[in-house]
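Q: Hand in one record:
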Amino acid sequence: MAKLYIVGTPIGNMGDLTRRAEETLRAADVIACEDTRHSRPLLAHIGAKGQLVSYHKFNEAECALKLAEFVENGKNVALITDAGMPSVSDPGAEVVALCRKRGVSVESVPGPSAATTAVALVGLKSSGFVFLGFLPEKASARRLAVERAARAGLPLVIYAAPHDVKKTAAELGGILGDRKVYAVREMTKLHECVTESTLLSFECEERGEIVLVVEAGEEENPMLALSPEEHLAAYLDGGMDKKEAVKRVAAERGVPKNEIYRLTL
């Protein structure tokens, strides 16, 4: 039975292409590429000769249907991006969702990830991290995304283009305060580099796509994201005594107890 294969490709070092990825690409009838010009050298290197289809963020919806139909008609389709895993801050999610909706089989062929590689390189001691990828274009949406992510109390992993990286660091500093940040670039290549600085005193050579790993701040109380009424209701609904709930909400929000008590009247 034909399948859609989600294939991870190297993020810089050709030697990181797995044997399974090579075999999958060589066997594919159709190879959907984010940029066919970028992918041709890799595909030629391994002898993959499937039909190339351009699949990028500007034609995702239209091309997703075409790729799903290829699989339904018995053709194995491999989906790749310029580097890393499709659907992770790269095109791919539309066709995967459509194929699953239509009952088309989807299989992953994992490969390198810039996010996990960067986190491993900086050596943070953390139980996890929040991956934001490329931040939204609108300033208001960027702020909202960062503020929401920061509430987890975990390091943030953000992708940045070289011409935007200093502006991005300064903007993050304005939202999060002056946290330590690691700028990771040229991963898996000869000049792989990690630069440690802070968001408001940022240092990094502006070359190649860059991964920013921002250290976590103090853990935030998720209740503070609620209104005072919702905060109080959450404790009362959980069975807490009214007097204790008022006292706790007032302490957590740094306001007088009588201000919270009035919400119960």
Summary: The chain has ten helices and ten strands. The chain has three domains: 4-112, 115-214, 222-264. The longest strand covers residues 180-185. The CA atoms of residues 37 and 158 lie 26 Å apart.
